[in-house]
Specification:
The protein is α+β, with helices and mostly antiparallel strands. It has two domains: 11-41, no CATH class; 48-146. Helix content is 44%, strand content 22%. It has five helices and six strands, in the order βββββααβααα. The strands form two sheets. It has a three-stranded antiparallel beta sheet, with no helix packed on it. A three-stranded mixed beta sheet has the order 5-4-6. A hairpin with a 5-residue loop joins strand 4 (48-50) and strand 5 (56-58). The radius of gyration is 24 Å and the shape is elongated. The protein starts with 10 loop residues before the first strand and ends with a helix.
């Protein structure tokens, strides 16, 4: 670590303490003798979504919530349930070792959770996510739910 006083790279750690989500280190410069404090934090790599078009964009929880809320509009689903669903999806995405996720992974996770929460919201979400073009596709989706 470079001393902020004399700009030399020769110090020793005098004290280390865990402070919340960081480690506080008290250091002493071996050149000038002055003490200074540093903090270490875990650097979390953000999730990146690979969109349908192939573009990459940062994961946005707000977009996820908006899509789920649109599917649950006028349904007996509480905001707390929607928040929990979004948290479940986000947690499932962050446990993977890959920091890039496809829109398909996100969509499938949301559909799994919505299927348990509200079948109508599930079909609404599936119709947009899977881009149904014909009524038969809706019927097939509903029949697959009965199985």
């Amino acid at each position: 670590m470079i001393c902020p006083f004399c700009k030399k790279d020769n110090d020793k750690v005098v004290d280390s303490r865990v402070s919340g989500s960081s480690i506080r280190r008290r250091r002493e410069c071996c050149e000038c003798g002055k003490r200074f404090t540093t903090r270490e934090y875990i650097e979390v790599q953000p999730l990146t979504v690979i969109k349908r078009s192939g573009e990459h964009e940062p994961f946005q929880r707000e977009k996820l919530l908006r899509g789920i809320m649109n599917s649950c509009k006028k349904r007996p689903v509480s905001v707390a349930d929607i928040e929990q669903l979004a948290t479940n999806v986000e947690n499932a995405l962050t446990v993977t070792e890959n920091f890039e996720v496809s829109y398909e992974q996100i969509g499938n996770l949301v559909m799994q959770e919505l299927k348990k929460l509200d079948p109508v919201a599930y079909v609404r979400f599936a119709s947009i996510y899977r881009e149904f073009k014909e009524v038969g596709e809706f019927v097939d989706q509903i029949k697959s739910m009965d199985k």
